[in-house]
Design a protein that fits this description.
- Belongs to the DapA family.
- It comes from Sphaerisporangium rhizosphaerae.
- InterPro entries: Aldolase_TIM, DapA-like, Dehydro-deoxyglucarate_dehyd.
- The structure is a single chain.
- It is globular and about 45 Å long.
- α6 links the parallel β5 and β6.
- The longest helix has 19 residues.
- The chain is of the alpha/beta class and 306 residues long.
- Strands 1-2-3-4-5-6-7-8 form an 8-stranded parallel beta barrel, surrounded by 5 helices.
- The termini are far apart.
- Helix content is 49%, strand content 11%.
Length: 306
C-alpha cells in the first residue's frame, strides 16, 4: 500500500468551510467545494485548517467536515485534518479526525501560550503518541522550532512532515540541514500565506510542496503556477506573480484576517455559496471584493489564453 508520504504531492487544497449567515455549517456546500477541488486536480485535501477556520469550528462541525471530505475524495487523494489548541483538546480533535477516516493531521500551534522548546517537544510528542495518524508539524506564530527540537520530534515514527509558515529561511535551512545530518526523514512544506509568492525561494531550499489558498477559487491558475514552478518555467511564474499574486498579496494586506476572509470572498465570487467568515473575523470591504474580482479575471485571462 502506498504510504501517505508518497501521496502528498501536487497542489495542496485547503478548502474553506461554508456556513450560513448565522454561522451554521453548510455541509452540502462544503461537499461541493471538496468535489470541485478533487476534480480540478488537487494533490491532497487539508480539511478544517487555517483557511477552513479551524479555531471557529465546534467539534461536531469539525468531525462532520472531515468525514464529508473523506467520503467525497473516496481515496483519490489524501485527507489531512487540522488539529490544535492545548494538548488535551488537540487530542480530542485528533481522535475525531481518526474516527472520521482522515489520512493524517496538520498540527496547528498551541493556543495562547508561548512555550519554550521543551514545552513544544512535549506537546507534539504527546499529540503524536495519542493518535495512529501521521502528523505534520506547523511552524508559525508561537510554535517556532529550533533545529534540535525538530530532530528530536522527527525520531517519532508518527511525525512525518514540517510545514513552515514562519518564513525565516536561515532558520529553515538550519532545520533542513539538521534533519538531513541526523537522517531524519521529513517532508517539508511551504506554509506561508499566498505561498506562491515565496515558492521560488523555497524551491531553492528544495521545497516544492506548498499550501495554495488560491486553489480554493481559481484552481486552474494555481495549477498553472505549480506546473511552471516544477518545470522551471520562470517566465510563467514571474508573470503570474507580477500580474496576479503580488497584487493579491497587496490586497490581502489591506485588512486584518484577509488571509481567510478574502479567500472565502473569492470562493463566493466563483459561484459557491460559502457564506461569510465566522467571528472573530470580518468580511472584506466591498471595494476590496471588487478588486479581488478584477484580479481573478486578470489571472484567468493569463492562464486560459492560447
Amino acid at each position: 500500500m502506498t504510504s501517505l508520504v508518497d501521496r502528498l504531492d501536487g497542489p495542496l487544497f485547503f478548502p474553506v468551510t461554508p456556513c450560513d449567515d448565522r454561522e451554521r455549517l453548510n455541509l452540502d456546500a462544503f461537499r461541493e467545494h471538496v468535489r470541485d477541488g478533487v476534480a480540478a486536480g488537487c494533490g491532497a485535501v487539508f480539511a478544517c485548517c487555517g483557511t477552513g477556520e479551524f479555531p471557529s469550528l465546534s467539534l461536531a462541525d469539525y468531525a462532520a467536515c472531515v468525514a464529508a471530505a473523506v467520503e467525497e475524495t473516496a481515496g483519490r487523494v489524501p485527507v489531512i485534518a487540522g488539529t490544535g489548541y492545548a494538548t488535551a483538546l488537540a487530542a480530542g480533535f485528533s481522535a475525531a479526525a481518526e474516527q472520521a477516516g482522515a489520512d493524517g493531521l496538520l498540527a496547528l500551534p498551541p493556543y495562547l501560550v508561548q512555550p519554550d522548546q521543551e514545552g513544544l517537544r512535549r506537546h507534539y510528542q504527546a499529540l503524536a503518541d495519542g493518535t495512529r495518524l501521521p502528523v505534520i508539524l506547523y511552524q508559525r506564530d508561537n510554535a517556532i522550532f529550533e533545529p534540535r527540537t525538530v530532530v528530536e520530534l522527527a525520531r517519532h515514527p508518527g511525525i512525518i512532515g514540517f510545514k513552515d509558515g514562519h518564513g525565516d529561511l536561515d532558520l529553515l535551512q538550519r532545520v533542513i540541514s539538521a534533519a538531513r545530518t541526523a537522517s531524519a526523514d521529513l517532508l517539508f512544506f511551504n506554509g506561508l500565506p499566498t505561498a506562491e509568492m515565496s515558492a521560488l525561494a523555497y524551491r531553492g531550499l528544495g521545497i516544492t510542496r506548498y499550501s495554495s489558498a488560491v486553489f480554493c477559487f481559481v484552481p486552474g491558475v494555481a495549477l498553472a503556477f505549480h506546473k511552471a514552478l516544477l518545470a522551471g518555467d520562470d517566465a510563467v511564474t514571474d508573470r503570474l506573480i507580477d500580474e496576479f499574486y503580488r497584487p493579491l498579496v497587496e490586497l490581502r494586506r489591506q485588512g486584518a484576517g484577509y488571509a481567510v476572509s478574502l479567500i472565502k470572498a473569492g470562493v463566493r465570487l466563483r459561484g459557491l455559496d460559502a457564506g461569510p467568515v465566522r467571528a472573530p473575523l470580518c468580511e472584506p470591504a466591498p471595494e476590496h471584493v471588487k478588486r479581488l474580482g478584477e484580479l481573478i479575471e486578470r489571472a484567468l485571462s493569463i492562464t486560459e489564453s492560447p
